[in-house]
Amino acid sequence: MRQNTKQTVKQIAVLSGKGGTGKTSITAAFSILLKDRALTADCDVDASNMSILLEGNDYHEEPFFAGQRAVVTAENCTGCGICEAVCRYDAIRVKNGIAEVNNFNCEGCNACSVVCPEGAIGFKQNRSGTLYQRNTDYGELVHAALGIAQDNSGKLVSTVKERAKEISKAKNLNLIILDGPPGIGCPVHATLTGISLVVAVTEPSMAGHHDLERLYSVCAHFKIPCVVIINKYDLSIEKSEEIEKFAENKNILVVGKIPFDKDIPRLQSKALTPLELPEIKDILKKSLDKILSTAGSI
Ligand code: SF4
Ligand code: SF4
Hints:
The protein is α/β, with parallel strands linked by helices.
């Protein structure tokens, strides 16, 4: 892949602080409006669903490895049980005279291998997820799925971002839109690395306001500017005004206020975005213009 090494790629992350705010639908709508002018990266690897809204062809798929798991060489095992006694995760047990590893429980800590008198325990790389590259009608999407009961989602987020940057540079695109994970934990920190601007999607509720404040604190800590979208703002005008007041006090621009529309769940069930509704499409277009203008001035 040929890359333009001098090109700067701006990354705009859409985050929510909490799940269920409509973050993914709004990110998908921005990707559709930007059509071919940006690459989309789904960093919500624990519950990846951007690929449902941005349909297309996964032209590339590769395994993602993180950590290690113990492996017993049966011929060398005497069934002494020393490994079972030392494992704190109940991940290795002697059955029929040979130690067996439960991959779901094994943390790859190495303790069993150290104590095994026969040198019967080695390690294999742990496949914890899959990375995909997809062509859609609206440009390219990099997405990933973490395997069942796997952690290391922060590392997978970093891998998704790295791949998105490589493709953007190769295609001379200077913008990546990222659908971030909910919360403020490790996957969000991984998402925030190298980000130009955060679009915080919130809703007018006590939890929405509280989680916006937490997200703002994380952004402020990393010195990343943010703007706010209040989704379903008319469900509580009072709470929306509180959020606007908070934003004003922190010098954060509210780039959009999207009204509640009972048709949105119906659209979501058909894998469609709010862009199908003309009034909301207009608000999203104007919000995107303000976001791009803010990102451009950074
Ligand atoms: S400590 Fe080694 S030899 Fe003993 S049961 Fe475990 S794997 Fe087998
Ligand atoms: S590597 Fe650690 S967690 Fe895995 S079986 Fe050995 S002692 Fe248990």
